[in-house]
Structures are given as C-alpha cells and as structure tokens.
Amino acid sequence: LEGAPDFGLVTLNPRGDIEAWNVGAQRLLGLAENQAVGRNWDFLFREEDKSSQLPQQHLQSANDNRVIAVPVGLRRADGSVVNVIVSVVALKPHGNAQGYLVIIRLR
What we know:
This protein is α+β, with helices and mostly antiparallel strands. Helix content is 24%, strand content 34%.
C-alpha cells in the first residue's frame, strides 16, 4: 500500500473495520496508522453521513459489483473536514466479499 503516497489506500475487512492504512491516508486525513487500524471506517464520516448509513451504502454498492467513486467529506484528526473522492472496490477472490479496497484522493 505504500507505493501510492498521493492516494489514501485503505483496506477493510468484510465488517468495514480498517486493516491497513498507507502514508497517503495519513497525509490526507492526519491520522497515523495506529490511530485508524482496528476502527470501523465509519468514524471517518461526518455525523449526518453516518446517520444516513452512507458508509454502509458504499460497501453495499461495492458488493453489488459496482465500483463507486463519490465525493464525500471525511473528518480529519483535527476535526476539520476534507473534501475527497472515495472509491470502493469489493475484494472477491472467491465470489464473496473478503474485504474492500478504499482509494481516497483530493477533489
């Protein structure tokens, strides 16, 4: 994941928990790997997006074999919001989602 420092690359398990976090994600969101890994990725979203189930909708869209690329505001470590494009791809080596790859880039 470290080969793309200009993009945030994050892997999630099937529940949406962060398993890997690259230097690009750290740079964009101000969170070190040890501050993100193990947490559900919904903590990155604004409260209104969490209450409307947006993080889960993104994972469901990826499960439905749709690669999504949507503009969202994600929370940074300092509480500010950064406007990014989030792409989510389901990792399905055997037909069922084994996890997800999330690509984050500035808009």
